[in-house]
Amino acid sequence: MSSNNTSATKPVNTQKLVLLALLTAIVVVLQFLGAFIRFGPFSITLVLMPIVVGSALTGVYAGGWLGLVFGFAVLMSGDAAAFMAINAFGAIVIVLAKGALAGLAAGSAYRLLARKSRTVAAIVSAAVCPIVNTGIFIIGCYVFFLDTINEWGAGAGFENAAAYIFLGMIGLNFIFEFALNIVLSPVIVRLIQFGQDRRTS
Fold it and tell me: Is domain 2-200 classified as CATH 3.20.20.480?
């Protein structure tokens, strides 16, 4: 009995590993491509969609893994160089934490809602991912870089750190990332449904 169960689960686990490896590569490639697209001082994050798809198809922890890979790719691409030059430890913590937690949150949101509606689950997951990613970034800026943010903001003509963070640093980026994920939600839904249908067929 146990041998039959083991043989039945091996293909599923293999499919998950192959999909996770593919999405890991996509996350890295998209991050390096996105490094060339900028609204303001930081590049656009294009990797949130594969993180959402991966967390839905391969599990919550897989979403965390993809988010962590996203963080490492950000560090390797030089997109966090300005922060690394000031406080390398703080920059690494922020970049890795925001990616991993965004993936975990996206996967958790999908898992929580998928039983009622996979469509709703995918849309909510797609919205949660950029919100958590940006939210952790904001928290990290206050914890590790507040003095620097104040200096940057004053130099750019902003009244305080909050105004600079929300209007000068993340404003257009977050709007673009959030809107992109929502617009691509139907694509995300189809990818998830296709992957789940293949696993059950």
Answer: no
